[in-house]
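pasting for ref
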Amino acid sequence: MKTYTLKKFMHTFGKSILVIIIFALIGGVAMGLDAKHKKTTTYTATRSIVISHNIEKAYQSKQNNSQDSLVNEDANMMPTYKEIAENGTIATAAHHRLSKHLRSKYSSSDVKSAVKAKVTPQSLVMDLKAETKSPKDSVAIVNATAQAMKQELPTLQPGSGKVTLLQKANTDEVSSSSHPSIKKHAAVGLALGGLLGMIVSFIAVTIKNFLVK
């Protein structure tokens, strides 16, 4: 039975292992640098608004309806309000509320693309989110959008509930996200580089053995 010592093992496979390691390192560094070059950071500001009717007054004027049914009606309308919040009309109204500097920096369509609304089933709270490459800009846009919703919703959706603005968005509460991930890309580069190194080593050994024979 043929046995291998560490010295013989390294003599036989050492070059192949070295090639695999080199290719893996090259792949990891290359993809890591590429990800670093393409890396962008975006900032998301959030402001919540509540859309509901005055339950007490509505209940007094409509004795046949319960408070629970009115709340349910408002909750059922939230998906519609979400679509309105993401509509170009609201974006245009929000754009008018921005500073002159931001109006020149962002178009109405930019504001529309930046803003997303989120609603939770059976909830009267809507979260408005604005994502840009600047925390201050995201805050300004989401606050302007909330103000636009308060003023424009009654016109766009007659009979809608009252829009109550909750705490203003501020830069201290802005979240950030960076893409692509340098670590993930480097790990993928290591794996692909190592695989390529294995293929090269296999081809080199095969050719060498073929020539020897």
